[in-house]
Each structure stands twice: as structure tokens, then as C-alpha cells.
Amino acid sequence: MPKIYGQRCPVAKTLELVGDRWTLLLxxxxxxxxxxxxxxxxxxxxxxxxxxxxRLKLMExxxxxxxxxxxxxxxxxxxxxxxxxxxxxxxxGALAAWGSRHAYTRARLVHADSGQEVRLGYFRTxxxxxxxxxxxxxxxxxxxxxxxxx
Length: 150
Known about the structure:
Elements: H1 10-18, H2 23-31, H3 37-43, H4 49-61, E1 65-71, E2 76-81, H5 83-86, H6 89-102, E3 122-123, E4 130-131
Antiparallel strand pairs: 1-2, 3-4
């Protein structure tokens, strides 16, 4: 059952959607090409079938995955990430990058074609220019914060 934090914060609201024990691991597996219930069960040691079923239903309700039936008798479904779900790829990448530096150092995030290590970064939406993470903050408004003129 997802936790409800009751905070007006995008981090807390996001954790209410994807912060349980299995959801981001399922997103990771979907990004890696897994599509079927049995594939998820095999990949996720320790997840009970009823929990997996509940997580997939929740992910569908929140618009993260789409379900497509490929068999009627017995009913069998494949799952695919929606555009909203695919955007979580950046979150998975950020967790993988952090984890490869601090939690599981035998892995690293690399470019599939060259094998070269990659970094994640912040970029301004108006110019595309890269900015330092030290200069990024959360703005709690509907409009971007503006610097005072003077």
C-alpha cells in the first residue's frame, strides 16, 4: 500500500506514486524490455504474485503503464510504459548513477554504443545550457523564479 505523506512538495507527491518497495524496480525492468507478469516475477526475487499484480494495477491507474492482453484463455497481459512512465527513466538513471558511486560500486552507468561512462546533469529549458547542481533549487510556484533587477 502506497504511503501518503500529506506534504505539498513534488518529491513527496512523487514518492506517493512510485516510492513503494517495487514500483521503480518494475519500471527499471520495463525499460530493460520485460513485458510479461512471469518475467517480472522471475526478475524480482521475493515479490509475491498478489503484490506484483497490485503494483501493476496501481501503475496502470496512475498512467505509468498500459496493459495489452495477448491471450484470452487464460487471460494473459503484456505491459508497456506510457510516455509518463518512460520519463521515470531519468529517475532510474539518477538512482543508478548515485548507487554506482555509493552503494553498489561494481556497476557504472555507460553509453550503450561506446561503453563510455556517462553523467547526468541539469540543463536550462530556455537555452539548453548545462548548469551546476549547486545552483539548482526547488521553486514552489507555478512560474519560474525571477531574479530581481537592479
